Amino acid sequence: MAFVTTCLVFGFLLLGLLGGETMASSNCNFPAIYNFGDSNSDTGGRSASFDALPLPFGETFFGKPSGRFCDGRLVIDFIAEQLGLPYLSAYLDSIGTSFRHGANFAFGGSSIRVGGYSPFHLSIQISQFRQLKARTTDLYGQRQGKARTPSSKWNLPKPEDFSKALYTFDIGQNDLAYGFQHTTEDQVRESIPDMLDQLSDAIQQFCDCCCVVDGGGQTLYEEGARVFWIHNTGPLGCLPYSFIYDQSKPGNLDEGGCVKPENDVAQEFNRQLKDRVTQFRLRLPHAAFTYVDVYSVKYELVSNATKQGFDDPMKFCCGSYYGYHVDCGKTAVVNGTTYGKACSNPRAQVSWDGIHYSEEANRRIADRLLGGQMSDPPVPITQACRKS
């Protein structure tokens, strides 16, 4: 009897070891990340192209300006950490950059559609990706048969890594925000299908007569992309900026203290986006698509902020919209009052500057997202290559 028991115990231990090995090997081991988005995931594109973001941007984690609209890391940084990869260099940053493990095409203010706050809309970002891939592939082709610096020393991706990489999207918020600023709520709702048509065409055309992204070239799928991690848009109405300018309208706030019309439209965008992702799974069975519910995570964080140790979520750390408008990184003295000085404890704030989240908020958001609990299908990001 003792012998049988010993054998059973040994067997269970062996199965456990083998099972652990199997689980570990089921990770996708992405060699690179290619990210497309706006200021929520911009790691330096806007700063490299226009005036650099000054301190106190970057102060909490990097100890210096890092090109991020935050006091520290963004969700895309936590994604890189989770996958064991370096932080993504901005494609437009020419100093000290490395694209060996991917590139970041996100740009502050970017939208899916042409126009809005930034010239670097999604089709431009896709065009930049195509250029990076084409020029990298060409350079590697020129090196064949020549005694050159080992490819491991290059700051460029390996051509074969493009099809093995993770392609992440976090874009659409600025399309909605710009629409609310310049049109009506109904017009913003009516524009959602066109936004999603253009987002869809960046990945793969949905119809034979569609125009490809910017009128020519390949879609991401045609370029070899096979694993897509797609964030929905966050609760626009929960940003302090939205609250400050829209709270006075009767019945405008929901039970979480957020601007209801803006959040309603964001949820409609997300509903239609999820439908598109479902269609992609049917149309492209050789690709893996993960729809990530950022909205719910951010809304829960804001509506329960004080219970989670944060200050009032409609306050923010840097800059000023109350009394006198001063952008983060600047100060102004008006009638003896200084406006815009950064707070002493950014970790206590959900919002960094009234529009973007603090590093502490981003960390908590990433903790909820990367394990797969808020994803469809519910897989962790390390296993996003699995097809549903």
UniProtKB/TrEMBL annotation:
Pfam name, any one: Lipase_GDSL
Keywords, comma-separated and alphabetical: Glycoprotein, Hydrolase, Signal
UniProt keyword Hydrolase, yes or no: yes
Signal sequence annotation: 1-24
Domain of life assignment: Eukaryota
Molecular function terms, GO-annotated: hydrolase activity, acting on ester bonds
Protein family (similarity comment): Belongs to the 'GDSL' lipolytic enzyme family.
Name of the protein: GDSL esterase/lipase At5g14450 isoform X1
Organism, as annotated: Nelumbo nucifera (Sacred lotus)
Lineage start: Eukaryota, Viridiplantae, Streptophyta, Embryophyta, Tracheophyta
